[in-house]
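Retry 2 of 3 after timeout on previous attempt. Resubmitting structure tokens to design endpoint.
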């Protein structure tokens, strides 16, 4: 049996960023508009700070305006909602991202629902969740959309394939299932209470792992030749005492049996930010009622 292909998320993301950068240039040169992305972080979680900084850096690189709001951990819910109201009303801001998780004293759902659905580049607002489920013009959550783009790059068609999504979060599992359904896959959402999880996974032509448990999915759970998308990012301490990142899939075992696998790091992760930029550009065009030629997203 030959080894699985490694799906190169960095290459997929670089290609998407290039496409977005071209469209941003077109917007600037022919429509005199610059897409603006506001990213809000409450608290001082170091991992979240790294994510937020790289979102802003990437936005600037593709020619967008980027607005950073770093708020202290003791920010009140009211203060955060007031900031969001201001961003909703600011015509220079086309996309708003509130980094999750929020501190426990803030009602996360209330905050998500405060963001203008047209500026909700995370696709978390119930209006966008509903539009995705009912076939409307949604802004779609970035990680699952990135996964789908990579899958389409690997496969001629997804039509009729068995897809299993392990994990039922609002950020990844549920929207991923909706996207796969829209592509005519037969979709199963599995989770920690699923009976015979290994057997369910073994049916999958497409297996998406989003459980948040290091190397949880084993090689013998994978159908020979399947495409395995690993959404997990887990920091573990190796036998040498060094910290390293691993996914939700046992990568070495998956390589022995799958047809293609995303690595961690360098798989799904880089695509998430590239799709965020895509969504910001789409949001800007829709708010400004601009149609770009050769752009099927808008
Ligand atoms: N925290 C972890 N993933 C995400 C994401 O995709 N968006 C936001 N806003 N926060 C996150």
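Retry 2 succeeded. Sequence:
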């Amino acid at each position: 049996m030959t080894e699985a292909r490694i799906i190169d998320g960095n290459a997929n993301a670089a290609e998407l960023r290039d496409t977005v950068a071209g469209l941003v240039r077109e917007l600037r040169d022919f429509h005199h508009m610059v897409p603006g992305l506001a990213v809000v972080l409450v608290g001082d979680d170091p991992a979240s700070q790294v994510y937020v900084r790289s979102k802003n850096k990437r936005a600037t690189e593709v020619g967008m305006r980027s607005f950073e709001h770093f708020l202290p951990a003791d920010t009140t819910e009211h203060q955060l909602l007031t900031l969001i109201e201001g961003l909703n009303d600011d015509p220079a801001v086309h996309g708003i991202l509130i980094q999750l998780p929020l501190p426990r004293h803030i009602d996360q759902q209330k905050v998500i629902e405060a963001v203008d659905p047209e500026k909700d580049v995370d696709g978390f607002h119930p209006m966008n969740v509903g539009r995705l489920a009912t076939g409307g013009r949604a802004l779609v959550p970035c990680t699952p959309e990135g996964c789908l783009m990579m899958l389409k790059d690997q496969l001629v068609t997804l039509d009729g394939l068995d897809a299993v999504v392990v994990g039922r979060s609002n950020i990844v599992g549920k929207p991923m299932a909706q996207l796969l359904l829209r592509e005519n896959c037969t979709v199963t959402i599995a989770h920690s209470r699923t009976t015979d999880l290994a057997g369910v996974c073994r049916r999958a032509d497409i297996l998406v792992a989003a459980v948040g448990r290091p190397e949880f999915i084993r090689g013998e759970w994978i159908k020979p030749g399947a495409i395995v998308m690993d959404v997990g990012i887990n920091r573990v301490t190796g036998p040498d005492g060094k910290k390293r990142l691993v996914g939700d899939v046992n990568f070495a075992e998956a390589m022995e049996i799958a047809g293609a696998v995303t690595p961690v790091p360098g798989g799904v992760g880089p695509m998430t930010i590239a799709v965020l930029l895509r969504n910001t550009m789409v949001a800007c065009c829709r708010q400004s009622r601009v149609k770009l030629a050769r752009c099927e997203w808008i």
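Attempt log closed. Residues 142-269 form a domain with the Rossmann fold fold (CATH 3.40.50.720).
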